[in-house]
Amino acid sequence: MAQKSGLTKLIKLRELMEAVPIGGIKGRGIQALIINSDDAHQSEYLRERDKRVQFISGFTGSFGVAIVTPNKALLWTDGRYYMQALAEFDPPEMWTLMKEGLLDTPTRAAWLVSNLPPKSTVGADANLMSYTEWAVLHTSLTAAGHCLLPLEENLIDKVWGIEQPDARGNTVLPQPLQFSGRTVGEKVRLCREEMNKNKAKVLVITALDEVAYILNLRGSDIPYNPVFFAYVILTSSDLHLFIDKSNLSEEAKHQLIDEGLNVIYHAYNEIHAFLKQIANSCTTNEKIWISNGSSYALHADCGEIKKHTAITPINIMKAIKNDVEVQGMKNAHIRDAVALVKYFAWLEDQIKNKKETVTEVSGATQLEKFRQEQEHFVGLSFPTISSVGPHGAIIHYLPTAKTDVPITDKELYLCDSGAQFQDGTTDVTRTLHFGNPEKFERECFTRVFKGQCRLSTTVFPLMIQGNYLDTLARENLWSVGLNYLHGTGHGVGSYLNVHEGPVAISWRPYPDDPGLQPGMFLSNEPGYYEDNKFGIRLENIELVVKANTPYNHKNRGFLTFETVTLVPIQTKLLDVSLLTDDEIKYLNDYHTKCRDTLAPLLQGPENAQALEWLQRETQPISK
Question: For helices 208-215 and 184-197, what crossing angle results, to 10°?
């Protein structure tokens, strides 16, 4: 069956918008439709059937919100995706890019208020929008005399029709105690303690990584994310699991029982009816705990009952890794570094000795093969960003057969990649040049490194939000008028989502950030991007640890970072004259740790190439 063209999809969608009955009256229609890049669990990454923004616009990035009116089609996305969106729009002449994050770009609510006819109706699928986002839109639209309508049917799904991929899930497997470090029974007990403190009768768990974490189970329903489609409702005495039970392996069922949990099973699609039933049974003094990050539809199911809308206790529990998870993450990063050292050594040899041509795609494939050799490997944690020259300026570039180019000694090569191991999740970026980099490229690379070093070595108070640290990574770029349009750091899961909340280091405030605490893992990834020329990014994963300080003001407690990524940084790209003595010592010490940790794992003739590269790339530098 031939796929619908982008223009055909928009025409059909607008016909459906015009036919939406308003107040039971047919033909009044809606004047705008909001299409979120969400599923019913507000996941960042989506399975194929939930990629509705991609279906209607052609844009494949992980974040985008589309608004379609009778004569406009707009897409908001952030600085990671500006260039990508413009290259992917279908048809390009029908779509307008709204560059979120720039001062002259209006918010979605502001654009709707300014451009809609009086008393317009804006439609959206309430399952695919968080309560927080819905409330902001509703307030702005209502104040301007408009209406935000939860649609009974998803109009994109109607346009998609029988071509939309199905919703069948995959097998759910146990995450053993040797990797989780804490039983399900213990996690549930800790949740109930928090429920009691907050006088909540019910806890509604909707985020898929939270469901997987509390149950010590893992799945593969969303590519690169070891999660599965399910909801959990926890009461003082029961745990209700909403899932297609046929997807649960026998091992998973037995582990739940062995770890002290008696589960009451429900069909996945019974969540709305059950939540309404529970809400109706609550007294006026009893509360339902449901995060504002959950869908507006689930919040609406709670009716008029009191709600506790803080992030769930699981969100913080999984962010603060226990001792077993911390060691697992460290071990995973060591094995991951072995794979990356093998890859970069192999790649350099292929290019310098003019062996077989390696392209962005074939390079990414070879890197995955090296990772597959490592113990506990499950899969990649996201599609490898293997990008040459101008492609590196597309921050989340995904190489395809259509865009694929050779990796050469003429341009910068940016490789951002990661893996899912059963004991941890990795994410690392290195930028390399296999020839003679230009002076400006070296200066930019050096300033990016200085920012990474500055953040990695900083000391900060316990419980400070990551937002306050973001400037540290940027100041050496800002001082010469350079910047990057993405966050500096994100949380990382323990064999869970590679982007994990609620903590982050970003120019954007994260209102749910509880403050940095020992045991949290975050990325440290400043960069610089010259459109149509090159991209530079250096990314390490950092563990939050206690700092030893000569003073301790008001017994606050102070923290710092321990770098767990162990992949050399290419010193050839550094302008050493721009580095301080402390920065040189930091890099030399880091490279000594990389060499001492990885060299014993790269013995034998089969690893001679990788060992030689490691030893050469970790030689100390000096002015």
Answer: 120
